[in-house]
Design goal:
The chain is of the alpha/beta class. It has 14 helices and eight strands. A four-stranded parallel sheet has the order 2-1-3-4, with helices on both faces. The protein has a four-stranded parallel sheet with strand order 6-5-7-8. The longest helix has 27 residues. The model has no long low-confidence stretch (mean pLDDT about 95). It binds iron/sulfur cluster (SF4). The site of iron/sulfur cluster has 15 residues, from helix 4, helix 5 and helix 13.
């Protein structure tokens, strides 16, 4: 059993420097295992896992990765994760993958899928077209068909059929994983002094880098530590963080936000790996259930086109439900979906009289003083208002 302090000290540095090393090491000790990369935000990982393969989050390259080749394939005004993902590929750091999946979340991600197809002809490169119309009576059937198409591709990579029983088992495992992650977030929202956002981030990020059977044990140990803690609350303001659903901020930046005087009550880090508000039903047609869950049981997100309820309403609800005093909008530089959302969030927050601060980050940034002092000034303006 590893307690949370040991877990953080073992994994923080690899997660900051070269996160995929964790998956690559695992593959070294299990050379026969097959791995399929999942670009953020959301991938139906059960379809991969049910084929006996391991879904791995390809969520940026970490601090050590120099962008030396990918710049020549993209314009300069593009988010960092698109470039770092291609750089990982061009430098052989994705060679341990048997395939990679992209999604229709934005134009850069769409282009990245095509660039991968052209540059890595021997790699299975897939692209999920998520529905853009959530209100049509045909949407669930459309997505079910899209998932069945993917399933057939995964069967080729796995070299075997994927049965409903396989899928039922995978749904059960990932339901458990997501349930435990929801519990971690619930504890943080109730007693943020007992688990920091950095700890919660490190625990959650590990879910993207190892088989769920192995990870669930680690997660249970981490939860046991958190449940035992009884820390005194500090004099901080409670905030909800929004805007980091795809490219991830450096861990040091998350640390800086907290130490500048905030409790992050909720966030959207790694949201695709915690994508459902409740379990996906296991019984019945598992592919249909996965598609239905995307429509009816998933969280809101900047890249899920859903006109049924305004995203800004969800953010306001989150602020109110967690008893937060403010919102922090932390978005990746050049991330269009996040910037479009910000206009709506800002309008709604101002209307509700909820203070907010907007910050931008890049996956590979070294200087955190400016962001930290902006947050400190924001916190002070609220504490001494
Ligand atoms: S960070 Fe934003 S712009 Fe970049 S790939 Fe992700 S969603 Fe698209």
């Amino acid at each position: 059993m590893m307690n949370l302090e040991e877990l953080v000290s073992q994994y923080r540095e690899p997660l900051e420097n070269a996160p995929l090393d964790i998956a690559r090491e695992w593959k070294k000790s299990h050379p026969e295992s097959k791995w399929v990369g999942c670009y953020p935000v959301y991938t139906p990982v059960e379809l991969i896992h049910a084929g006996g393969m391991i879904p791995v989050g390809v969520i940026g390259g970490g601090n050590r990765l120099e962008i030396a080749h990918a710049d020549s394939r993209f314009q300069s005004f593009i988010c960092s994760i698109v470039k770092s993902t291609l750089e990982l590929g061009l430098t052989g750091l994705l060679d341990f993958l048997d395939g990679i999946v992209f999604h229709s979340i934005c134009d850069p991600a769409r282009n990245l899928g095509s660039v991968f197809k052209r540059n890595f002809p021997n790699l299975m490169v897939e692209y999920i077209h998520f529905p853009q119309n959530m209100t049509s009576p045909h949407t669930v059937n459309y997505l079910t068909a899209e998932y069945r198409r993917l399933k057939a591709v995964y069967e080729e990579v796995a070299g075997r059929a994927i049965t409903d029983d396989d899928l039922h088992r995978s749904l059960q495992i990932y339901n458990e994983q997501r349930r435990l992650l929801r519990e971690l977030y619930a504890i943080r929202a109730e007693k943020p002094q007992n688990v920091t956002a950095v700890e919660s981030y490190i625990v959650t990020r590990l879910a993207t880098l190892m088989p769920p059977e192995e990870y669930i044990g680690i997660l249970k140990d981490a939860l046991a530590t958190v449940r035992r803690r009884d820390e005194k609350p500090k004099d901080r303001i409670k905030v909800v963080l929004e805007g980091s659903f795809c490219e991830q901020p450096p861990i040091e930046l998350i640390d800086g936000l907290e130490s500048a005087g905030c409790y992050l009550m909720e966030d959207d880090f790694l949201t695709g790996w915690r994508f459902f508000v409740e379990d996906i039903p296991v019984e019945g047609d598992p592919v249909y259930n996965l598609a239905e869950a995307y429509l009816r049981r998933s969280v809101y997100s900047g890249v899920k086109h859903d006109t049924r309820e305004r995203k800004a309403k969800h953010l306001i609800d989150r602020v109110r439900e967690t008893g937060s005093a403010a919102a922090l909008i932390l978005s990746a530089k050049f991330c269009e979906p996040a910037l479009f959302d910000y206009a709506l969030y800002r309008q709604a927050l101002e209307k509700e009289g909820i203070p907010h601060l907007f910050l931008e980050f890049e996956e590979k940034m070294w200087i955190f003083d400016k962001a930290r002092s902006e947050v400190e000034t924001f916190v002070e303006s609220m504490l001494f208002d």
